[in-house]
Amino acid sequence: MLYWALVFLVVAIIAGALGFGGIAGASAGIAQILFYIFLILLVVSLLFGLFRRAR
Predict the structure, then answer these.
(1) DSSP per residue, 36-53
(2) Averaged in consecutive runs of 10 residues, what is the pLDDT profile of the chain (55 residues)?
(3) Which entry of 3, 18, 26, 28 is 20 to 30 Å from 37 by CA?
(4) Is the Cβ–Cβ distance between 38 and 1 less than 8 Å?
(5) What is the dihedral sign for C-alpha 17, 22, 28, 34?
């Protein structure tokens, strides 16, 4: 998932450099959403790992 966030970020940077503002904004938004989902899943995974060790 982090890979796809980076892909959309690169697409946004390239589109922004070429003057495609709408595509750049959409790609940056998708990258941001995927990154936040990745962070949430990371935190949930860490919490589950800590709870399993506590038992």
Answers:
(1) HHHHHHHHHHHHHHHHHH
(2) 84 88 88 93 94 82
(3) 18
(4) yes
(5) negative
